[in-house]
Specification:
The chain has 7 helices and no strands. The protein is mostly helical and about 210 residues long. α2 runs antiparallel to α5 and α6 runs antiparallel to α7.
């Protein structure tokens, strides 16, 4: 009986050691780096994220920032000052720390850089022109949101105007409003030319959207 228990314990330890080896041995299938972004799979992943980022904007405080104080709705019982400060009933005080325009700023610039990468690498990664046009639409969309809220914003994120940024620099120079609108219209004109009449998938952008 003792011998059987010994063998069972030894077997369990052997299995545990084997399973630990399997867990610790990593074989990365894809790493989101500038190099991976030059592959078809990487660029298509970036294109999917163009649609995903809308949730970062419209399901967060930014949406409330656009609506509070209008005749649509006002703050509710559990609301914090992120809602109350932008409500025009006087219950809060509007300021830069709780207006939550940062939701748009962060989501838009992250997405713009992804769009830059798709536009730069899409053709070499065998992406159809219509797919690249979707990225152009979203880059224009994000810059349109930014310029309405903040005025002139940077077109150069570190590697040149409308270039995919791989620089570690955190400095930027603000472009003028006309310069930003010029970039927006250029992207939309190209998007209108290359996008299809009918969406490739439900909810995908079309000529009409642009």
């Amino acid at each position: 009986m003792k011998l059987s228990k010994y063998f069972l314990a030894a077997g369990a330890l052997a299995l545990l050691a084997t399973s630990c080896d399997d867990v610790l041995e990593e074989t990365p299938r894809g790493i989101y780096t500038p190099e991976y972004f030059k592959t078809e799979k990487g660029v298509m992943g970036g294109l999917t994220s163009q649609y995903t980022h809308l949730r970062q904007i419209y399901s967060t405080y930014f949406y409330a920032w656009l609506e509070c104080g209008t005749d649509e709705y006002t703050y509710a019982q559990s609301a914090d000052n992120n809602f109350k400060d932008v409500d025009y009933t006087g219950v809060g005080q509007y300021n830069s720390t709780s207006s939550r325009s940062d939701n748009m700023w962060g989501a838009a610039f992250t997405n713009i850089n992804t769009a830059n990468g798709i536009i730069e690498n899409g053709e070499a990664a065998n992406l159809d022109a219509a797919l690249i046009a979707e990225a152009r639409f979203f880059r224009a969309f994000d810059y349109f949101q930014l310029v309405q809220i903040f005025g002139g914003v940077p077109l150069d994120l570190g590697s040149g105007e409308l270039k995919f940024n791989t620089s570690k620099s955190r400095t930027s120079v603000r472009n003028t409003v006309p310069e930003v609108y010029a970039a927006i219209f250029a992207d939309l004109e190209k998007a209108v030319a290359d996008l299809p009449e009918k969406p490739r998938k439900t909810g995908a952008v079309t000529k009409t959207t642009a």
